[in-house]
Specification:
Oligomer: single chain
Order of helices and strands: HEHHHHEEEHE
Strand order of the largest sheet: 1-5-4
Number of domains: 1
Number of strands: 5
Helix content: 40-55%
Shape: globular
Length: 160
């Protein structure tokens, strides 16, 4: 992904409050009209993701997850332990968000997926991806193959 394109994405965020990914086959100059000026579904998902993060806890990690984190620490790989912890926390946040979505009338028709974009809504051309708000994770998702010709809005939550 080019620096010019990333700069465009971030300037778009500053102007409209959303951080979006547009597939390389949809250059910004050709797809600017595809981008909605407002996104109430995405705004509601963003608000609820922060609530979900506040509810999520390491206490909900499985015994196997806790053991995997401890094993990495014992093996002298604290960075791997931190990555696993964030991965497992992302799973917890998504579980909490899925529960919140069920009762949020603003998100009627939003569905969660195990592959591709995390959330979609029938008739909405914007797809949604839930992720930890870290530079590394943003880069990982921004360059991820497999989501082609999609307009993706990132729904972010803080790692801590």
């Amino acid at each position: 992904m080019s620096n010019k394109f990333l700069a465009w994405c971030f300037s778009f965020k500053q102007k409209f409050g959303m951080l979006l990914r547009i597939a390389a086959s949809r250059a910004p100059s050709k797809s600017i009209s595809d981008i909605p000026r407002s996104d109430p579904v995405g705004d509601a998902l963003q608000e609820d993701a922060l609530k979900a993060r506040a509810r999520a806890s390491k206490d909900h990690f499985t015994i196997a997850q806790k053991r995997a984190i401890d094993d990495e620490i014992k093996a002298g790989r604290p960075w791997m332990a931190k990555l696993l912890e964030r991965k497992y926390m992302g799973t917890e946040v998504q579980k909490e968000l899925n529960e919140i979505i069920k009762t949020d009338p603003r998100l009627k028709g939003v569905t969660s997926h195990g592959r591709g974009p995390d959330y979609t809504q029938e008739g909405n051309r914007v797809k949604y991806e839930l992720l930890t708000d870290s530079k590394w994770n943003m880069q990982k998702h921004a360059t991820r193959p497999g989501i082609k010709n999609e307009l993706i809005r990132y729904i972010k939550f803080p790692p801590k």
